[in-house]
Amino acid sequence: MKKVMLLGMGVMLLWSCNNASEKSTPEQETKTEHHHDEKTDAVELNNGEKWIVNEEMKPYVSKGEELVNAYIQNHETDYKTLAKQLNEQNEQLVKSCTMDGKSHDELHKWLHPHLETVKALENETDATKAKEMLLQLQNSYQQYHQYFN
Length: 149
Fold this sequence. Notes:
The chain is about 70% helix and about 0% strand. The chain is built from 7 helices and no strands. The relative contact order is 0.17.
């Protein structure tokens, strides 16, 4: 079920970013595959500079980061609710994507593992493992700031 949800989110992200004016069919969505390997998944800078992210997307990244930081600072324990809130921000982030080209590809390299971590947090049953995932999410947002403006 987890893989189906991740595939669905990946398809939605690809479709939203690349086909803003086209409608996809369920048949097209099931044929879409998104392959990753370690060598090509490393986010790269734009000739030593950060990539520009469209302004419409930035509030959703910021809000997600705020949610994670507040959760940690306030020593909260309901990580399922946090995961739901992060999923809502990520859905809006995907819907607002109008990027294309290399900047879009590099953002995908950051976003795909980020979405996987949020999904894993949502399905986690062990509070200790959930805490580790929260640290992964914090690091994910730090990586975002390292590579994107």
